[in-house]
Every structure is written in C-alpha cells, then in structure tokens.
Amino acid sequence: MGYVLAFDTANEAVVVGIGSVDADGAEAGRIVLKEAPARLVAGEARAAHRASNTVLIPMIDELMAGENIEKDDIAAVVCGRGPGSFTGVRICMAAAKGIASGLEVPLFGVSTLDAVAWGVWESGYRGAMIVAADAMRKEVYPALFMIDGAGAHRLTSDAVVSARAVQDWIDEALAVALPDATPARSDVLVCGDALAKYRGSFAEAGFPVADDALWAPSPEGLLRARRIGGDAATLLPVYTRLSDAEENERVRLSAPEVRNLASGVQAEGALTFRPLDAAHAPDVASLESRAMGTDAWSEASVLDELPRKDRTWWAAFVGERLVGYCGGLVVDGQVQVLKIAVEDDMRRRGIARHLIGLVASDARDLGAIEMTLEVRASNEGAQRFYGALGIERIGVRPCYYSDREDAVIMTGPLPMVARDVAGMSLKIDEISPAGHAGASNGDVSETDSAADAAVPATVPVSTPLICAFESSCDETASSIIAGDGTILSDVVASQVDFHARFGGVVPEIASRKHIEAICGVADECLERAAVALGRPSLRWRDLDAIAVTYAPGLVGALVVGVSFAKGLAWGSEVPLVAVNHLEGHLYANKIADPAIAPPMVVSLVSGGHTMLVHVKDWANYETLGSTIDDAAGEAFDKVSKALGLGYPGGPIISRYAAKGNPRAIDFPRALMHSGDLRFSLSGLKTAVITYIHKQQEAGMPLNIPDIAASFQQAVVDVQVAKARTALIETGSRTFCLGGGVAANPALRAAYEKMCAKNGFRLVMPPLSACGDNAAMIAEVALDRFAQGKLADFTLDVKAHAPLDEAY
User: Which part of the chain is the N-acetyltransferase domain (predicted)?
Assistant: First the structure.
C-alpha cells in the first residue's frame, strides 16, 4: 500500500489530504496511480490569509507524523492547479513540483473547482451546482457541475467572467448543458470563495448559497477529483487568460496603424517573430491568396480574428516584410490551428516550426494541452511535418475544402521539447571559477542536453554538494557547487525574449515562465553535475543542501523559486539555505578570484539597484550610499526606449556608444559633488529625453551614437568618482563590481583606469556572472551552510531586504 499526498493553496485556505492507495509507488506506473482511488487517511483545511508559503510544508509534516507515514511511503503527489489566486496557485504548483522531484514520484494536478465540487458531494448535496472562485479584478471563475450519487460531473470548461455578467453566464450554461431539464435558479446551489464578495448578488438573483465551510476545496475533494499529468516538469496551472500586458497588446495590435513593436537593434533583413498586428492584415491576405487558393481568408476575416481573446496569431518578418503567419483558436483545453503559411522563398528555415511553437506557448497559457488541425489529404509533406511534432492522424473529413478535397484530421499534445523550459534557450556552464576546467558552452539548443555530453571518468568530489536556485526577476537559474568552490554545473533560462516587446520585465509573465521552466532547469543542472563528477546519474538526495534566493526581487518570481526549493529540500530530506540576492552579487567576485577577501568596496549596479557597499567581512556589510530614484540599469532601459532601440537597454546603448563621441553632449552629472555617496539618475534620464524631443521638434536628425555615448559617459563619471571617494573614506584597497550593468565595457574600462591610477586592487566578475545567475547564490550558500545558517520550511519571500541586516 502507498499514499497519495494532495494539497491546494489556490485561495485563502491551505488544504492538505493524505489518502491510501492499493498500489506501491515503486511498482505502480503513472497510469495506475493517475486512476487509483484514494481513501482519506488524514486531512486538514486551515485559513492561511496569504501565508500559505509558510504554512504548507509544516502542515504536511504534522499530518504525516500523526499517521506515522514516512516520505518513502508516498507513491504520488497531487496538487490543485487552480484557477484561483495567482500567487496561491503558484505556491502550490512550485512546491508540488519540488516535492515530487525530491521524492522521485509522479505529480498529478486537479482542478481546484473540481475539488470544491467533490467536497460538496461528500456533504450529501445532490443536484446542479455552480462553483464560483474569485478571479479578482471584479471577475469570477465559474464552473457548472451536476452532483449525483456517482459523483461530481463537470459540465463546462474553465472560464473567466465579469462578476456583473456571471449570472447570465450561469443561465446560458444551464440551458446548453441541461437543455431537456433546465433547472430554475432556485435549484442551483452556488459555492466557492467568490461568495465572500458576491454572496449578496447571488442570493438576490435567486440562487441558494452553500455554507461557507464548503467554499474551499476539501481534503476528500482533492483526492477524488480527476487527475491529469504525471510529469512534474510539464504540469501547469489552469490559465484562463493571458497576462494583462499581453491582453493589452492584443487590443493595441488589433487597431489600425500600430507602431512597429520589433524589439532590440536588428540588422536590416533580420528574421524576427512578433504577434500579428492589424497593419499587416493585407500582407496576410495576400499570402493567403497565393498559398490557399479558393480557401484563402480575406483581409476582413483576418482583422476580425485579432481582437478575439480565444485566438492567438503570430507572424514572421524579414525586416518589415511579412514572410509567414500562424493562428490558433483555443477552446476546451485544445488549440485548433486555423491558418499557417510561409512564403515559398523562406521555407525550410524552421519558420513554420517556430510559429507553431509560439502559438502553442500562448495556447498553453490559455489552458490548452492539445493541438488539432486539418490538412489536405494530398499534402503529404505537411503531414510529415506535423507528425514530426507529435501530431498524429486520427481521421478524415470528406470533401472539407472548397474544391471537395478531403481533410486529414491530426491531433496531438502541444509541441514541446523533451525538457520543457517554456520556450527559453538554456545557457549552460558559462560560469566557471578561475582555473576551473569547465568550458563555456554558450547557448544550446533544446536537444543539446546533459544526456548528450560525454561522461568522463569518475572524479573526486569535495563536499558539501549544494544546489542553488535563483528566480528573483526574469532568469530561472540553478547551479551546483562543490565544497572546494568548484562550480559543477550552472544553468540559466532567460526570459528576455518574452519581455522585450513590452520594453521591460512584466512580473506576471516572469512568474508564469518560472513555473514552466524550473523543473527543466533543475533537472538539466543535476544531470550536468553528474557528468562533471563522472557519474552515470545524480539524485537530489545525494546532495547536502538546497539553497535559494528569498529576497529581494519580484514577489511573484521569488515565490516560485522559494516554494520549489523548499519542496525539493523537504522531499529529498536535505537542509535548506536562504540567500539574499544582493549578497549573491557580492560573492560573484569569488567566481573571478576564489581567494578574494574583505575588506573591500563593491559597486552594485543593476536594473533594480545602484549602491556602494563596504564589505567589512563576509556577512558584515554597510551600505555607503544608494540611488534616491532610478537605478542605473533602469535609466539605460528608459533611454533606449526613448531612442526607439528596444530592450534590454544596457547592451544596446553600449553598442551604439562605442561608435559615438562621449563628450558630444553635456548631460548632467547629478550629485557628482554632493559630498556623500548617494546617486540620482532620474534627472539624467529626463535630460536625455528632453534633448531627444527638442531635436525632433527642431526637425534635426538624432545622432544616436553620440546621444548614447554622452549618456553612458555621464553615468560612468558619477559611478567612478563616487567609487573612488568610497575607497578613500573606508581605507579599503580592493574594489569590486556586481550586477548586470557591471558588464558595461565603458564602465569596466573606467574602473580599471581609476584603480590603476590610485593603486587599488580591482576584481570584476566575469561578464557571464554579472547578470542574475545561481552560481553566485551557490557561493553564498557554501559559506552559510558551513556556518550552520539554515532556514526552515516557514521561509517566505521578501520584496525588499537590506544588505546591512543579518538574516
């Protein structure tokens, strides 16, 4: 006999249930465990009030201890997938992924709404029922069920509806799902946490309301609800809409004469992909007429598609020439490919495959798990193409096309790579300590995994082995370090391509992508470490600790890494180490020089911070001064945006500045002579934008290289002057850098010149370690582990955490 561990944190309650199954996890396959009935052994629902991240694992421990259940007895993990509170769902999903990975058992997901319905079934209610979950923003997640003696039967798919319109939605759902015996409102019970806000309106409309004890999922409901999945890496939350940024983008793109949203500085003729906009609808119609003949869509048909929320359309461009497009309709967990075409002269370049992948990615964010399409029976090449993506032929639709040709119907799972990292390329083993034999591999393709690497002879290993995770912003990263400081593996999945078209990091997208990528990144990191050690494999329980960035950063991003790491540490029964992200940037200098030792002054310059830190000793820091407004990286991004150059701004401005005159324009150096170590970049940013506007108003062409170089020099001058002052005031003889802006070539060169002139020792992290990475977090964790500074499973995230404060 084995046990199923089930839990949900999608709303204000933390619910945990443990059920027994007549199958042992080691002997029963995923299919058996997916369907196996589970009898409740222990369960509890506890109000969390947004503290589920601190409550979940201690609750699990209490329940298991009460029943004398060991971790090795758990055959499977089941988690609620939502819909519900965004943060709550991600805490649940990330923790479940970590726990299942550590325990090495399957992970299944259930609908939170289904679990609520089954709890109502347990209470004895029979009849039609609506579960309405709070979707925030004056919206509701409704689902219709019929409850009878056999169980809770779902009659509608996941949806998000305005609270004002939900009663009409219910009436329509009842009429469609139960046409022969449509119940009156008085015969339809309403349940769910949306009642906390809308109970009065439901009651006034004639709906009976369930007792509030039934609004949250029950332990029994979690165990009885239909399970999906089985693979921790690919299981995702229930999504019913795109992020706000993406939905607003759709509205903007569906309007005529939208601006070109190409991101970054692209060479003329470069191949790019971006959401289809109304301005290119005529180009789509033109390609349609040439590729589809009598089945071609008109320009009006294309324009009608773009604003629809259940559609996703992407296009490929060479410069501004549209060379391909793909569109899909998302409904009931499936995306139907409506159209796809590529210009004849651009075929066999992977464009169609990439377009399909972009549509699949959006569809997954809208809750789809399957793709379907029709293709002409005579088009064998297209059928082979789709077959290679795992989309298989399931039937024929006779005389489907306008010329009476049959259509082959093909269906399959959403096209995903074997190790799913949410469409992100992996940067693997780019970071190595000085003198370490590990070489940089750069960006790798999805197929270039640890399994393809040659396994060297077994090498001695210095303990402890610690795996660290970083997810404070838009990088999902993992790294394993050995006791002697050797970085055995380092993996980073960057989301920059997903944020570039919005001109900056979108927190909601960042959190979603972390959930999608974290298992793939973790597994790749573990396998790479095994290769480095000359072992055929490495298990999580072979490690000595799990470390994670807990602060500062974007809460929605941090919570994924922390919840996953806590679950992984719990499941693999190893200690947990919490790390401050900013301290990680200090320790990044150890990657350049493992022997570096305090005292020293460090300049931390990034998109979120600009500060000078006196490192008196490791873990003993004093912030000497920081920005009073914009951070340096933020200023680079905003100036780049003002110049129409794209995101991220740092590398783009740097490239243009290399061609310009840094003294061409006298931009202000704020607080240069303030007598303290504070920074201010808001005024500089405003001065640059004002200069741009004045040039444009005067009809003068913009000399972008000179503007970029002059802006960059203004930043560099202040940074270097303040750094010199800090070194003199503290008496430190060593100066270091940290943060993404520390990769700026002009800034690095200026620091080299200043330090050489004044006799200071300069240590700079390698370029690959300036941005967010997990190797620097692992470096901190190694020291904290040795000092016994461990975290417990009540660890939570913090948006802000000063370096000066001990933790």
Answer: 271-415
